[in-house]
Amino acid sequence: MLPRNYLDSNSTQEKFRRYLEIGILSNPRNKCALQPGHSLMDWIRLGNSGKDLTGVGGRVRPVSLAELAAHNTQKDAWLAIRGRVYNITHYLPYHPGGPEELMRGAGIDATQLFDKVHPWVNYDSLLAKCLVGPLRYDLPDAEELFDSSNPSPKSDRLREPSKAQELVRKSMENLANCITPVRKKISSRSEENVKGSPPSKIMQSLIQSSDLPVSISRRAASSPVKTVEKSEVSPLRYDWIQTSMKLTVSVYTGPLANPGGCARITEGALLIEVATNGWLRTLKLVPEGKLQEPLQLRIYAESGKIDVIAQKAEPKVWKVCGEVTLSPPSQVSSPRSVECRVVAVGSVSHDTTMLALEPRSGPVVVPLGHHVRVHRRVNGSECVRSYTPVGDGWCPEESSAALRLAVKKYATGALSPYLTSLKEGDSVTLSGPYGTFQLQKLKAVKSIYFIAAGTGITPMLGLLKFMLSRSNPRCERAHLLFFNKTEDDILFRDNFETIAKEDNRFTVTHILSDAKSTWPGPKGRISYDLLTQVLGKESLKCGDICSHFACVCGPTDFTQAGLQLLKKFALKDDCVHAFMG
Ligand code: HEM
User: Fold this and answer.
1) Atom of ligand 1 nearest to the CA of 113
2) Is the CB of 96 under 6 A from ligand 1?
3) Does the model's ipTM exceed the 0.90 cut?
4) Which of 196, 464, 516, 577 could link 551 by a cystine bridge, Cβ 3.0 to 4.6 Å?
């Protein structure tokens, strides 16, 4: 299950269309058998081994184009994607397309090449441990060499360019196709229109002379914050990037801002709603050309970046993105209702169903550790239940646009018999997001304890993946204490075992209240003795900064008991969170 995380989209159709477009399907040479010991899991293991994969001691620092160009051999290869330089030397033998293919991007800004082959690959996760630093495009010598307003003298053209010059030239071409956005603050007016400015001369000439799909990223702006305290609402910035087929609008909410969001196309405009910390802002883009659905929405929890990817109705490179309006922040007064279509029904245990629900109005992402409510009228009164959507990488069949809910069936329940009997195509009404969990609280956390019972595991899933994948600070320990009645009741057991095998920072302890006599693990209900027996008396404590954190979720009695018991450990109140429906 884990490898799927590293592919941003699993749309087979898109993959095949793309491969046909660039001729990979007709070229079996591109399929590469990896050497033993070079699977994705081996790569993740190497990344977690503590070995310095950056080659520069792991200290992030800016890289110039000339410096990038100098790292272009199999023994020392760097590559840049979307303004970030990675040392790919160690990754070469793990690359599923083969080292030679990957070397095509060595020493240059390979954004365009990468996007042409496999834009769905989540390169920033895969190469997180290989980050050297941001790419600096502002080298005066490089600009002098290739500024179209100052064409090279004839004698220069006749001269054979050196290898390094040629690599810098390639990078400048790629740069014309993908410029690191200049994040510029705009004035504090209550509403602001920003017209995407046209590309510079050099970019225009390169775009016009090229029939390849290109990508351009333009300026970003912070959202105006006039009527609210700055400390309450972090500034919002955005930029965009394109290929001839797609437009990606990225919105930056800030590290650990834990945004939720939704995106839709209404009357030709792309609307992106972003909710952070109880504040809602809407970015409206009236695009240069026509955009169409389906939209994809991705949120990166550590950086707080939101990507919305829209299809262009006609394949074309736009000179500007369109007109952007950023609304001032308004407080989220009431949660939104969303009409969803059931797109898949699966099973996660003998009594728990996984429902995949696709919002009809466009993709929706719920902040980490937050939940939605399902509404239904039963015998004239409204019945409501809370569910935390299960993120990517936990279920065998996943549609990235869907909200997945794990619904346990209670024979006499008011809502669960109805929900577990739903079929593909049926409709469900959700509202949300709800919740009080603040990701910021995990800012300095290095050890995290998840204490869950039954379907109370669902808020923990996203947090567990987040903690194990974050780089700064690196999580040192994640321990899940999972309470269930019987072995058959344990949800996602195989997933936990796989993660524990792959990552020695993670431990799972299953505790059963109604275990068979053959059960080798701990038995019983949550108690102080059990917690100290499993975790050790000293483990749950935090210093001045919240370096240890515990969260609890399960039936109300369980959660309250868990909270009481945690008080007996040396944890500050701020370092404990109870998820309540
Ligand atoms: C920029 C230069 C690159 C080129 C020319 C390139 C080329 C290719 C090719 C030809 C394939 C094989 C497609 C197939 O037969 O299924 C492939 C697969 C793959 N590449 Fe790259 N690649 C590049 C960069 C990267 C980077 C930077 C990463 C991530 C760190 C990456 C990760 C992958 C992955 C995960 C696959 C398997 C994708 C899938 O199954 O959908 N590649 N690449």
Assistant:
1) 1
2) yes
3) yes
4) 577
